[in-house]
Amino acid sequence: MVVLKAPFTEEKIRALKVGDMVEIEGLVFTGRDAVHKWLSEGNAPPKDEVDLKDSIIYHCGPVVMEKKGSAKGGGPKKKYVVTAAGPTTSTREEPYQAGIIERFGVKGVIGKGGMGEKTRQACQKFGCVYFHAVGGAAQVLAEAIKDVEGVYGLEKFGSPEAIWKLRVEKFPVVVTIDAHGNSLHKDIEATSGAALQGIYSELKK
Amino acid sequence: MKAAQQKKFFDSLVEVIRKTSTELPDDVVRAIDAGKAVESEGTSAKYAMGIITDNIGIAKKKSQPLCQDTGSVLFFIHYPAKGTDYDAMTKLIRKAVATATKKGYLRQNSVDSITGKNDGTNLGPGAPTIHAEPWKKDFFDIRLVLKGGGCENVGAQYSLPDSRVGAGRDLLGVKKCILDAVQQAQGKGCGPGVLGVTIGGDRATGYLNSKEQLLRKMDDKNPDPALAKLEAEVVEEANRLGIGPMGFGGKTTLLGTKVSALNRVPASYFVSVSYMCWAYRRQGAKISAKGEIVKWWY
Ligand code: SF4
Question: What DSSP string runs through A171-187?
Fold first, then answer.
């Protein structure tokens, strides 16, 4: 088990290898279809709110409940609680991801189902990794989210699509694309394809 | 049904939805535990299976959805032919879905396909999907499957002969198609998965019947010896592909396969494969004419 703590420096990212089981600790930003499209159209969130440099983007549309808490000044302050936060399918962001990794210096992407060739190359070139979370594990992952530090673009994108700033601890993932050109998805696709042909030829006998 | 009975029936329906969304049936949990046991210590496959079993426990304890994709809501129902007002029954089912959504047992998960609008109720054309048949018995059999989008997307239908797969119109060809579907799915359907397969039928009845196979218990035995053999072989062979949980690599690619056959017209030979993710949410209850849950089926 590797513990990856913020700040997510290129050095720490390059030390990770495909197959590593990792627990992430620090701030991650959610982002899915609307945000990826928007970023790819040349837009960027204000840096003081969402600094994507050396960041981790999580492909996730969390279920967030609003709780009224009180701020120190006495006025009502919005407090959010995440009740479910599993990964969504990453391939939908494949057309955008490589460009976003390059332009903003993103260091990690969390999702499920893996990503393609363009992302694999961008990870290698710019020092980024793809973390695979366990699909469907909404409750385990929600428990690893310790705090919601804010949200950007709630009006613009709507709740599941907005950029949620999540403080995570012991957030469990597996590295399936590393910064050295390796992709577990590519490997397993090849080995399982070969195994399938092997089984087919046995069946003929 | 009188008003008091309707209220009870409605409460029972909400409870069926809650239980389906938050707890996996025992037979599924046992299959998942068995899958976890065969993975080697220290592998990402074992790690993933551990997270899955933890998740099952937390969801049950907190009575929260196992997975945030609470899926397509698919009801399979038998109702007493005598004395059931069909329209009133389906109205109550729809109301129960809307209430379960408000209570958070279901995510706001149903979108108008043309406008993209989500009105937050989970109600609309085909949502929920209700397959209902009358029968002579005096109680309701209400079964529910919540079928997530990720796994539904990796389902596949083959029209035999299939030259890409090299599948002819026989059980060998059928098996090749099923294994091909598993290999194509890789980890994208949140494996380890369970397959419902139907040989024959037309395209629509084939897929529907393949979903109905998901109502069978993991440990049941197919009464047709040829299909029972096919089911066992498919699981054994698919688990040699090495795809593993989430596609991380490993021994547990499939937890089970259920196959059935429908008659077909001579010109057609379909193999329809429905892939169910590990979050195999199925439940069902015997509900009395008075609207009370008498027993759980799973
Ligand atoms: S495929 Fe199943 S486990 Fe995976 S996200 Fe969809 S519903 Fe959840």
Answer: EEEEEEE-TTS-BHHHH
Domain interval for residue B181: 150-276
CA pair distance A112, B210, nearest whole angstrom: 26
Taking chain A, what is the end-to-end CA distance rounded to the nearest angstrom?
Answer: 44
Residue A74 is predicted with a pLDDT of: 47
Q: Which residues of A177-200 are buried (b: 16+ CB within 10 A; e: fewer)?
A: bbbeebbbbbebbeebeebbeebb
Same domain flag for B163 and B257 = yes
Identify which of B57, B51, B53, B49 has the alpha carbon closest to the alpha carbon of residue B22: B57
The residue type found at A1 is M
Asked if B11 and B137 sit in the same domain, the reply is: yes
For the packed helices B171-185 and B225-238, what is the interaxial angle rounded to 10 degrees?
30
Q: Distance between CA atoms of B148 and B53, rounded to whole angstroms?
A: 18
Nearest to A135 among B59, B150, B249 (CB): B150
Mean pLDDT per 10-residue segment, chain A (205 residues) = 96 97 98 96 96 97 77 60 90 97 98 96 98 96 95 91 96 98 97 98 84
Contact residues for A155 (Cβ-Cβ < 8 A; gap 6+): none
Query: Are the Cβ atoms of B44 and A114 closer than 8 angstroms?
Result: no
Q: Which of B142, B69, B143, B140 is nearest to B111 (CA)?
A: B69
Distance CA A78, CA B74 (A): 37
The model's pTM is 0.94
Decide if pLDDT at B159 tops 70.
yes
Angle between helices B26-38 and B44-62 (to 10 degrees): 160
B244 occurs within a structural domain: yes
Residue of A nearest to B251 (CA): A192
Looking at domain A2-204, does it have CATH number 3.20.130.10?
yes
Q: Which residues of chain A neighbour B176 with C-beta distances below 8 Å?
A: 200, 203
Residue type, A115: M
Answer yes or no: is B37 within a domain.
no
Q: Does a structural domain hold residue B73?
A: yes
Residue B11: CATH number of its domain: 3.30.360
Q: Which candidate from B150, B247, B278 shows the least CB-CB separation from A185?
A: B247
Interface pTM, i.e. ipTM? 0.93
Burial (CB count within 10 angstroms: exposed 0-12, middle 13-18, buried 19+), residue A44 = exposed
* Cα distance between residue A177 and residue B256, in whole Å: 29
Known catalytic residues of A?
Answer: 36
